[in-house]
Amino acid sequence: MDHEKPASNGPESIDSLREENAALRAAVRARDDFISVAAHELRNPMTPLVGQINLLRKAARLAGGAVPDRIVQGIERLDFIVRRYIRRTTTLLDISRLSSGRFHLDLTPIDASSVVSDVATDFAFHAEAAGSALTISIEKGIIGLLDRTAIEEVAENLISNAIKYGDGKPIDVTLARDAGEMRLQVKDHGFGISAGDQTRIFEQFERLVTGRPTSGFGLGLWVVGQLIEAMGGTITIESHPGQGSTFIVRLPLQTKKETNEPDAKPAG
Predict the structure, then answer these.
(1) Which residue segment(s) compose the domain that 22 sits in?
(2) Looking at 33, 67, 100, which one is the last position of a domain?
(3) Domain boundary among 60, 83, 100
(4) Cα dihedral 85/91/97/103 (nearest 10)
(5) 156: Cβ–Cβ under 8 A, 6 or more apart, which residues?
(6) Beta-strand (E) ranges in the chain?
(7) Does a structural domain hold residue 262?
(8) What's 65's DSSP letter?
(9) Which tens digit of pLDDT belongs to each residue from 89-113?
């Protein structure tokens, strides 16, 4: 009777595994480099477009009633779409940097109240189109050492998901100071998330299926979790199927003064 030969564990087998590992690492690096270059190429042409839209917005404001409301609303909608596109390319860059270990926070004193308020206001039209009333409650003057782009991405992803899964019901966005921390809460009254799904939605490439054709969490919440962790914060979720979801983000409000460095003017 023929017998199978045992797998070789000799030098040739070890060398083969090393070569395969090296090839896999090279492939991952190539992927991350491609994503990074693609994100830059997709985002760069949008910069002059944002400038033109801003000029149109200013001109419409100066013209007052001479410009029909539908034109003003169209400009606002275009501005939202382009800014959201730019944020998506930023997320692509972050995915590449986080995956390759090349991600670095740009911590500067920022006015988190202003940043979150701007993002939430941008989404007001989108929420209205989805049938959801967006209530924004922002405590003013919440300032700390944070990464501005990271705060924007966190707020955008959470509000966007609330609109997507909010079932056309009210959405509440709240930002407040809480014992040396900023507390961002995004609450919807939609489909909700089961206990089993809550344990995995912050994992990479995980998606939540709700039975809707456009449903699904992709990399957005994974990036959110990574950014919050990098800034020393936490994110929790309170949810039950059919009763909506509440995402709660807590971030420490460290300042220049607390680190024995001179105070700096807030960046936003």
Answers:
(1) 11-100
(2) 100
(3) 100
(4) 110
(5) 84, 87, 119, 123
(6) 107-111, 134-138, 143-147, 171-178, 181-188, 234-239, 245-252
(7) no
(8) G
(9) 666 666 666 665 666 778 899 999 9
